[in-house]
Design goal:
4 copies of one chain form a homotetramer. Chain A is built from 8 helices and 10 strands. Chain A is an alpha/beta fold and 250 residues long.
Chain lengths: 250, 250, 250, 250
């Protein structure tokens, strides 16, 4: 039976608590901000508690240290500092998780760091080093990116992420948010894409072609307009298609 | 055989790396700043590596979030936030420690938080909650303070700290740094005090009297003038007196 | 003719830009966050531009350095640091204002600093020193507070602030937000209070009595439920009562 | 009569107060950190007071927001944010200066921002916009860089900076700190270079050739080993050569 994970990024201050809670009803994994681009010890604890209550697997969502730019500004940090910053953030979230009787299961970098890791071998290796040396973690990276190869080479347990609510360019990268049509806001369309990704491993590109993308997890952006209805449509359509929705970490 | 621990606070940017390294030759425990009053992921990793190299036990040295005031300003944070901030910092340091194959063994709050915990039952309980829920940690607190009682009540593994390079008031509190004679800078005098604390559990007060203080760990301030010579004298005198110098965590 | 100022606190990330803009249509003064509890250089510039567009007088809204606690946590900072922090923030906002061809006209401390200044002579004097040494500024403080006396003694140009959307205790302080009825959310009631404050200099207290409060400026909280309708009712009722609504700085 | 300015970067936490004070005896301008890479309101005020006491002209030394990396990490900030960040920092320092009866006279960007401005037209234009819209300021930039041309085009009052204690590459850029011989630590050699720069507008390059550089200000790094003796030698040799040492701002 085909299985796929549904995930959201939480604890970023972008959503009201009620909406975060509603999303947690639908997804199987939650990536939680660790204070470097958003969040705080208090917000992290509250978000962990909400995830725990809904039986959702939690991952760390570390970022460059850049609250002002929400982690979206590229910082030319050397690899060693990237690894240290990732370990600091993962440990901090795990400390709070541990106090609640649970633990961080995976790491998904955020924003500019996520994008850099997708194309920059050295950056990807630094993140892999951090994840491997911490132990007992899966690394979640963009499907089809350099980071998948680097993680595989370095023996890091890796999972891949695809998006049902974002348009893809012909080369497999996400269409920039500023491009018209970059956000897929029609629930039925997002659901169709989700099923295509889960069953066939492919998704239409903006140029009319088709891209092959092996994804273990479908990420839904909580701040896409109508995010909740999109999530409901995706979940329902996946189940309709006989696809198991389950965490990518076992 | 009587046994006592010798400790220093490190990774606070107060000492050149060479001097931190020299102190690590002499002590048995090191309390490492976690980024809230001083330190950074990079400095924390370097300090952990140095401690590891010298076989010194490492503890977390969490603080109020106050880099500007070096954690010395009293912040009226509610207990829940104190617990969250402590867990975040302990986890962050432990994440870096874990990547180096070691782990944080104890927690010693810093500055204004350390002082508040010594007298404020609610604050002490918040720190104890954090330490207990994290698990596998000892809490290091001022000898003779409220925090000892609170930790004992709450079933938290607790150790007590005394100072050989600082004068004590008649009521058992440290003489404020601004008081003449507050710093004990004469190595022989500090060594004498250390032996008195370790063997007899008492130390002279500024008023000429004697204070009883049960201490498991003698803290040496790395930034006291002549800190290294003081540490050498204390260590040598303790050994001369037949006292074992060993970590307070086993 | 009786005259009173209407003001709001802006640039704190608490309101959508459209709502800030709508409030700027109604008020005569805007107190802008300076980055220490909320805001950023970008947000400050945008808020200044919006205020300028609406012909609203701008003031600085400096805070303790406490983004995590939104400036609401009491920090035991020494007076000298308070004065330095205020000057830094006022200057920073004024730098951005200057680049837009305008300037900061007044200073109204935020949160815990505002509350401390209301009762702590030393703190009020530190803020007064900062305001006076900067020059060409009015200090806006709680009506009936210690800060009014201190500013007068020290020769600082001072204006007083009252609230139409908050309940008052019998001793003249604001009812804590946690007390039932602390927020006045009924537009007609807030308008009635505003007129009473402007015309008679008095307002009902929670115990049924009446408090005398000389206020030059009526502050409306942008985040009170229904803030916009409250502001509209207050403005309309003040005009109906023949009261001029005009900035307190000339 | 040939005239040149001698400057240092201060308030960065790199030097003991006594050494900053000794340098202020020798130089004519001081560029003061504004809190984004180093410094704080307290340190800024102390540094301003020291400069004022020595009759030294003060400039703002704004940076990317990056305390962790001391402003040396390249941040891909958009031009609008650079301008806003510069205005915030200049205003903040000027606010403290104003409280002391003086004012900021020039702006010299720091670290990665200084380097980017030297080669990136758009970045230089953003800094120029900030400086021009603030008014009454001179912009200090690397001699021979893109920033000189941009400032001239945009009508910004500009001055140029050269270095007597650093080696130059054949293309006119500074030799990276990691290159052997990058730091000129021999006082006589630094003094010879200073005179060459001031009188002939040229300096030897590492390849044996000569570079022409028109500099209005010679910057001395306070953290170069033997900085004080270098500064003394430079000052004495410049005077010996009949060169007036005076601020570049009039």
């Amino acid at each position: 039976m085909v299985s796929v994970d549904l995930s959201v990024d939480l604890g970023e201050g972008a959503l009201p608590a009620a909406q975060e809670s509603a999303l947690l009803e639908l997804v199987t994994s939650a990536s939680i901000a660790c204070g470097f681009h958003a969040g705080s010890p208090s917000v992290m604890r509250l978000t962990l508690e909400a995830a725990l209550e809904h039986g959702v697997v939690v991952g760390a969502h570390p970022s460059y240290p850049d609250r002002e730019g929400f982690g979206r500004v590229e910082l030319a940090l050397p690899p060693a500092r990237i690894a240290e910053d990732v370990l600091y953030q993962v440990g901090a979230l795990d400390g709070l998780a541990r106090s609640l009787g649970t633990s961080v299961r995976y790491v998904k970098p955020h924003g500019a760091l996520y994008n850099r890791m997708a194309v920059d071998h050295e950056c990807a290796a630094a993140v892999c080093d951090a994840v491997r040396s911490y132990g007992a973690l899966v690394l979640l990276v963009p499907a089809g990116s350099v980071a998948v190869d680097v993680a595989t080479e370095l023996g890091v347990d890796v999972a891949t992420e695809v998006f049902a609510d974002r348009a893809y360019l012909a080369d497999g990268r996400l269409a920039p948010r500023t491009m018209p049509g970059a956000l897929v806001t029609e629930p039925a369309e997002a659901a169709r894409r989700a099923v295509g990704l889960a069953v066939d491993g492919c998704v239409p590109a903006v140029d009319g072609g088709t891209i092959e993308l092996e994804g273990n997890s479908i990420c839904l952006h909580g701040d896409t307009p109508g995010a909740l209805r999109i999530a409901e449509a995706v979940l329902s359509e996946l189940r309709e298609a006989g696809i198991e929705v389950a965490p990518f970490v076992s």
